[in-house]
Amino acid sequence: MDIDEFMQQFSTSKGVSNISKIRENIVKLDLTKEDSLNFFDSIKSDFEHCSLISAIDNQPDFELVYHFSCINQAIVVKDSDCAVMLEAHVYLKRDAPSIDSISNIWFGANWHEREAFDLMGIYFIGHPDLRRVLLPEGFAGHPLRKDYVYEIHEEEW
Amino acid sequence: MAEMWISMGPQHPMTHGLWTLKVKVDGETIVDADPELGYLHRSVEKMGERRKYFMNTTLTDRLCYASSTTWTHCYAHSVEELMEVEVPVRAQYIRTIMLELQRLASHLMWAGAYMPDLGHITGALYFWRDRELFLNLLELPSGSRLLYNFIRIGGVKRDLPNGFEEKTERILKLFEQRLDEYSDLFENSKIFRMRTDDVGKFTAEQAKNFGITGPNLRGCGTKFDLRKHDTYEIYEEIDWDISTREAGPGYSDCFSRYMVRIDEMKESVRIIRDCFKKMPAGATLASRVPVRAHGEAFRRTEDSRGEAMMYVVGDGSDRPYRWKIKSPMFTTMSACPHYLKGYKLADIPAIMGSIDICIGETDK
After folding, report:
1. ipTM confidence
2. Most CB atoms within 10 A, among A31, B28, B113, B213?
């Protein structure tokens, strides 16, 4: 499948908006939280590798950025052997920072989700093992949030 | 038989860094595992948010002590994408030479660490003897032996010194002879093959789903290398091939992962030679590099261990608003219960050694 065909095919999917190409091999789109799991499920055969999940504190709301890459060249760029990537943005409200987990679809997302939970306090519903991964158990707060105050939590562990 | 948990690490010779591997064994067979991280967590991402863009190159150097240039390059490359900086062609060639020298040093460091894991101390001394040669080479332009801080946003710190090409060529020639020696010493060694053949197997499909990239994926026979498939710097113009190996149809074992790194070293030698041949004269640093940046950008590069990626968000100030690091080893390690299961306790050093762990970048 060509990258433009892919964009056309998914531009009408439920929950997808602002679909665009940011480089010749990178598709960027916005996704609603409710439809994210269905959408990710439908692209799993094309994008078999979950590269990265980044959580951003945009104050007041959170943003999750998913990067998936296509290794088996199921989607191609014309006249090039560039590997195609998908960048999906999902916006979460600050008072409900939770989203469906994708670690049952891509195992590689498992620890990325644990890290986003650990450092940013995003809850992934349906994650098999949502524990802190980098910080010690019992650490209070999520230090990558912009409102995290370092001094207060210094002595708690 | 009763099952029990055994804790390997954080102070265990197998770990190569500080981390704990909890393994559940039934007799000697591994039935489950649980890797634990965080002993080396320095919160690089948070520190980076407090520093100006150009200051962070010293932090990225410290992400991986075995392969610091590749990480600084990944950072500089992402920030250049964000700031829309054009890097001069000569700087791109110098970067490629440095990256490949670093890849050689990193793979030799790995090979030297892997041999004592398998009880082969001589191998460590041989490989580290050769790594020394490449550290000497990396020292010439950058002035330091481990953390170079040589790649800057917009180019490199300085031009290559006089006589660098001749010195490199002399070392590469010697190194090629040594690689032939090593193939006699290791690939044909029955003991080495007994420890590595058919141990720690996973298929290419599993590897992609687990998030395993780099030499570990190419060890399954998958032809995927970001230097070709999401090309950067001047890798497009250089004459080289992706090296792949497989233990059987579509799966890898410790030996194929060892071999793919040896092949990669040979390719790196080719790339360095070709770079010297094609390198033009010119500037080594972009004439104008912005201090502030707005927007978001990411780039991924082929680190010595797999897909390295940095996602940088700028809010218009001179410091990154959010800086996210993707470490290839982080995901590779997360899948270790899958590829450890079913093997014996004594296979753990062979398997975990063969995936080339670097805790510095994993813990960030």
Report:
1. 0.87
2. B213
- Domain boundaries B3-363, corresponding CATH code: 1.10.645.10
Over residues B206-230, the pLDDT tens digits come to 888 898 988 999 988 888 888 888 8
Interface of A with B (CB under 8 A): 25, 48-52, 54, 56-57, 65, 67, 69, 71-72, 81-83, 85, 87, 106-112, 115, 119, 132-136, 143-144
User: What was the pLDDT predicted at A82?
Assistant: 83
**Cα(B126)–Cα(B108) distance, integer angstroms:** 9
Q: Domain A3-153 maps to which CATH number in 3.40.50.720, 2.30.30.100, 3.40.190.100, 3.30.460.80?
A: 3.30.460.80
* CB < 8 Å to B313, chain A: 56
Q: Assign A152 a pLDDT band (cuts: 50, 70, 90).
A: low
A/B interface, count of CB pairs below 8 Å: 89
Query: Which residues of A are less than 8 Å from B334 in CB distance?
Result: 107-108, 110-111
Domains of chain A, by residue range, sit at 3-153
Domain residue ranges of chain B, discontinuous segments joined by +: 3-363
Query: Alpha-carbon torsion B217, B219, B220, B224, what sign?
Result: positive
Cβ burial of A87 (10 Å; 0-12, 13-18, 19+) is buried
